[in-house]
Design brief:
The protein has about 425 residues and is α/β, with parallel strands linked by helices. About 40% of the residues lie in helices and about 15% in strands. The structure holds NADP nicotinamide-adenine-dinucleotide phosphate. NADP nicotinamide-adenine-dinucleotide phosphate binds next to loops.
Length: about 425
């Protein structure tokens, strides 16, 4: 039988957890790598030299990452007959920190989304997406620099839980029959069905993480985004459980919108965090019209998926949007765009999302100087108008470079950054 995993790099050491729940990171950590499908290999080939150069430069050669390639997606299916081998899931648990490219999901049939499976199998319950403008990036809005938000999207529940039945399937008929006979709900017999579960446990651990992040990152506002006016017992409950958690666990820190004017004269006092909530459709307007008013957003899965891409567009598009899927045991940092199959192998796509996700990952393991260097290198390359096609088409007098060319430009600018 074929060996699924390559052995972990011999010169690397494992990242582990301390008893106090902190990461313990050696200077030569093993970090898992899932290259991904489509443009995944293109963006990884461009990004890895940037990560290695930034780590070496910022640490004066003291630190080095040992990448451990883990199979998933089309390559894994071709070689091992499985899109997501169990060995890969175990390796992610062992590595604790992983970076990944996009994985293709067929629409309307075929295998289940590997991204969703990874999140559920590893209980990566929070999708964290910082949305911040990199100066110089072309943007469709007038003041993209006003956007500086971090999205916490619940990752395991909601309509994305994967509980659905096809129109005409036996299971669909059984559920339709149950609804008709026991709940007096009569639906079209040919309906396809999906279930939208939301629980206090999953909501509260997400909101807890968002509040803790706001406290650590010195952010002043956490906004619950929901569609609770229509879906009262799921999205409405998400809002209620979020407030409940804040009252129960952070009574000294969190204040609420109704007390802001009555008790605090409209200003958030030092050391406090304001929790408020907004209805999802209104929020799409708010982030365009009043982005400065929002800092940390906590939301259910579907809202979070839509809003994070819309916000990414405000700061220059999916090519510039980093993200991570985080649980209590491990985290996977990922380019947030898809596998963009039409660009696969062309060395064309923007590796910015992968680069920024890598910077986020370095910050996560406590390597802040290394992370900052990458962000400054990207900023300097963009300000020098050295950009990939997606930004070049929006930027006058840009010098268009390939995917790997952008990686090289960032490395050149690490020196001046
Ligand atoms: P996509 O792969 O994100 O590509 C859609 C379009 O977005 C591209 O054609 C391109 O637009 C632009 N784009 C995406 N990444 C870019 C980058 N790095 N630089 C510049 N432009 C970029 O979305 P899709 O075509 O809907 O999805 C393809 C596959 O990816 C699907 O199987 C989907 O399920 C999967 N997917 C995976 C993930 C993940 O692994 N996390 C996330 C989303 C989708 P232009 O053609 O206009 O330049």
């Amino acid at each position: 039988m074929k060996q699924v995993l390559k052995p972990p790099p011999a010169q690397g050491e494992w990242i582990t957890w301390t008893d106090g729940g902190r990461l313990s990171v050696p200077d030569n950590p093993i970090i898992g790598l899932i290259e991904g499908d489509g443009v995944g290999p293109d963006i990884w080939a461009a990004a890895q030299p940037v990560f290695d150069a930034a780590v070496e430069r910022a640490s004066g050669g003291k630190r080095r990452i040992h990448w451990w390639e883990l199979p998933a997606g089309e390559k894994a299916s071709d070689r091992f007959g499985r899109h997501l081998p169990d060995e890969t899931l175990d390796a992610v648990r062992k590595a604790v920190v992983v970076i990944k490219g996009p994985l293709t999901t067929p629409v309307g049939g075929g295998h289940r989304s590997l991204n969703v499976t990874l999140r559920q199998e590893l209980d990566l319950y929070a999708c964290v997406r910082p949305v911040k403008y990199v100066p110089g990036t072309p943007s469709p809005v007038k003041r993209p620099e006003d956007v500086d938000m971090v999205i916490f999207r619940e990752n395991t529940e909601d309509l994305y839980a994967g509980i659905e039945w096809k129109s005409g399937a036996d299971e669909a008929h059984r559920v339709l029959g149950f609804l008709r006979d026991h709940m007096n709900i009569v639906l079209d017999e040919a309906s396809g069905l999906g279930v939208k579960p939301m629980s206090p446990r999953a909501t509260k651990r997400l909101v807890r993480r968002a509040i803790r992040f706001a406290m650590e990152a010195d952010r002043k506002k956490v906004t619950l985004v929901h569609k609770g006016n229509i879906m009262k017992f799921t999205e409405g409950a998400f809002r209620d459980w979020g407030y409940e958690l804040a009252r129960e666990e952070f009574p000294e820190t969190v204040i609420f919108e109704d007390e802001l004017s009555s008790r605090y004269s409209g200003a958030i006092p030092e050391g406090k965090i304001l929790m408020n909530d907004r209805i999802a459709d209104a929020m799409f307007q708010q982030v365009l019209l009043r982005p400065k008013e929002y800092e940390v957003l906590a939301m259910p899965n579907l809202n979070g998926d839509y809003l994070s891409d819309a916000l990414a567009a405000q700061v220059g598009g999916l090519g510039m949007a980093p993200g991570a899927n985080m649980g209590d045991a491990c985290a996977i940092f990922e380019a947030t765009h898809g596998s963009a199959p039409k660009y696969a192998g062309l060395d064309k796509i923007n590796p910015g999302s992968m680069l920024l996700s890598g910077a986020m990952m370095l910050e996560h393991i406590g390597w802040k100087a290394e992370a900052d260097l990458i962000v400054r290198g990207i900023t300097a390359a963009i300000q020098a108008r050295t950009v990939t096609y997606d930004l070049a088409r929006l930027m006058p007098e840009a010098r268009e470079v390939s995917c790997s060319g952008f990686g090289r430009a960032v490395i050149e600018h690490l020196g001046s950054a």
